[in-house]
Amino acid sequence: MTKNDKINFSTPSGFPEFLPSEKRLELHLLDIIRKVFESYGFTPIETPAVERLEVLQAKGNQGDNIIYSIEPILPPNRQAEKDKSGETGSEARALKFDQTVPFAAYIARHLNELTFPFARYQMDMVFRGERAKDGRFRQFRQCDIDVVARGKLSLLYDAQMPAIITEIFEKINIGDFVIRINNRKILTGFFQSVGIAENQIKTCISIIDNLEKIGEAKVKQELEKEGISSEQTEKIIDFVKIDGSIDDVLNKLKYLTENLPETGQFNLGVTELETVINGVRNLGVADKRFCIDLSIARGLNYYTGTVYETTLLGHEALGSICSGGRYEELVGIFIGEKMPGVGISIGLTRLISRLLKAGILNTLSATPAQVVVVNIQEDLMPIYLQISQQLRQGGINVVTNFEKRPLGKQFQAADKQGIRFCVIIGAEEAAALKSSLKDLQSGEQIEVNWADLGEEIKRRILNPETI
Amino acid sequence: MTKNDKINFSTPSGFPEFLPSEKRLELHLLDIIRKVFESYGFTPIETPAVERLEVLQAKGNQGDNIIYSIEPILPPNRQAEKDKSGETGSEARALKFDQTVPFAAYIARHLNELTFPFARYQMDMVFRGERAKDGRFRQFRQCDIDVVARGKLSLLYDAQMPAIITEIFEKINIGDFVIRINNRKILTGFFQSVGIAENQIKTCISIIDNLEKIGEAKVKQELEKEGISSEQTEKIIDFVKIDGSIDDVLNKLKYLTENLPETGQFNLGVTELETVINGVRNLGVADKRFCIDLSIARGLNYYTGTVYETTLLGHEALGSICSGGRYEELVGIFIGEKMPGVGISIGLTRLISRLLKAGILNTLSATPAQVVVVNIQEDLMPIYLQISQQLRQGGINVVTNFEKRPLGKQFQAADKQGIRFCVIIGAEEAAALKSSLKDLQSGEQIEVNWADLGEEIKRRILNPETI
Predict the structure, then answer these.
(1) Which of A198, B91, B141, B183 could form a disulfide with B273 if both were Cys (CB 3.0 to 4.6 A apart)?
(2) Are A68 and B71 an interchain contact pair (Cβ–Cβ within 8 Å)?
(3) What is the ipTM of this complex?
């Protein structure tokens, strides 16, 4: 074979791929996340990677995102089909850049087939034409849940979100984290109460949302640029910096409900927040796992109530590892109906890449195999195959070595791949229906009857004390 | 909210999406397939959806496929970035149309990080610009395994494939199926022995491969068109129609090895086939699950030895539900190295769609929830939340009803979604730390202590006799 030196076979910039040890970690995390999502009754959907361009651009939802359109390239022998393939300009299609717009389209497409409140999870790949920088990918997997209703949606759905976030990150064993909860109505109401004009409130909230990132001095400057007086700015900064225990902050907010000029929004926001906090506690989430942070707002203006961010303690520079909130006018856009919803999102590809770099997570072994049946005598292969199948039927992942090599090399190769056990059967052992089981983790080698091999291996995998 | 009537929110033609009950079936099948793949030590990888166009078109691998290229569309506020985004013609990128070419690129990209023989599985989406007809999708999921080596690859890897196919389809519970095995060297060798010219052999094999589809008369015509004599044609047809038990066919082939003019290829093919068949048997695959079918060749010319097709008995019109074979010059194309490999592929999206239509598979319930904690008294919500969490910690998927509705409606809604159990707690029950458990499948309603609820539900799920 000749090598075609001219072909650049590297991945296109920004399109990541994982080594097996990394992909296995991703699948492990996806399994955990899916299990938690499903335990709360969220059901899976997957929308196509490709949507009509007009869907993706509906109501200006493209936002700042660079979308990739798709265009068919015919092979040389099928050029004549060009006109028949039905790919005209009006049929322009593109890759989805998030899961929200396609979710809205999914709801419109299947409105009468779905049961509301509809709680769904989605763990699809999305595509954005970002300039590829560290941690910015052009293709990445997002793990999203949303529950949406026709009519009213209980605030207890908002309360479930921190419980779900807590369970996921405790199971991933990621270290200490805190979920910061706020309610945009509180911010809106407070801004109204200090006399900020209605048309400036969203901008001011966006500026405040950056407090942690750009610092107090910069926030003050930006508010000043918007024409906010220094007195108003002081009040705002003092307000969003309110801290203390969850109950401290709640009490301060309740005090303000009786002492601020009435705005409607503020008091409603505080009541909503209290309901959510009570729900989070009733769901058994420990107080150390969440706090009220009046400075967070989620830049996205479609959030209208509860908002969440999740900070990994000691790794604040990673930014929020799971965010979301409540919205009203987002998923009903294609059917012209207000559909209240609440959702969260984990940007999994980015999270894995950053947690690996930060040493917070480790990759798994390069193979799911737990056992190698080594090959020391070719004519015993039928026995090697039989023993391999017996172990597989017991739920163990097994590689049979088909190539005969020195035993030491076979051990080494297994160890290098992170395979823990080797099963060794020579002529004598075969005659006695026995095998030697080598535990590469402990170095130990014991004799085990064929019939007991599966149980012995499973016992060792499950019980670290036997190592 | 106003509805934008002008937006066509349907999926683009050929890009399918599943309802929750269908997506849950897909995930269930993916779980089964992944578990079997991993039990043989196949490790997961996922290559990006997007590759450089030159990679996808390397060595003419586009074949007959219509590829989708991607092109960035900048949002209105970022038009100025056009020139900076690095998306020039020489960087042309497109969506992968299969997993073979990207696998070859993956190997080239990570040659020194992988351990050979490298056994990987991949269950990614691929994209082809087919005209959307019944069962032909433009985006679909393929479940592929391949094991490739640098140097030699044991024929026992070929033997594992039918064992893997058997396990998967037995676990999916798809009905009776048979894996048809052949070896292209046998066909090539036989064609040589009857005097077909070397440059005609591949074409003749392709014609024979269509025997089942187009029938004997049409095959004869097409062979005649190629200038094959009627005597040669008779011999060929007689040969590929050899049937009988596995041992019958093997014995007939072995007889021919001693009676045909020596071609090298034929005898080698028979020896390979016998080794593979022995391996399949040693792996415990029942004889009823496979046969030797000398007429199959897999159209794709890159196969060089063993080939497989899988037929669902009674549903032959579905075509092969899992196919594959051995190749030599496929995955080493980017590094200019012969890398023998053997692999199989399940076109999962198409398979599910056809099996559902044929009534062979049923969808799952629309939600993973197994239990609804109903809401009959708002002030007991803290207890409903607590009981829900307790059940979740026991591994049960639970929905808590946050909206209070008549009890009958809550039962109905649960039943409609396929949720089997309702947990009912009123004031009296709450005081006694008890609940009523309603099994909607049996209609039975029993009283259970809170502490025993999880075990009772799990017992009923696992043991159908309690229904």
Answers:
(1) B183
(2) yes
(3) 0.95
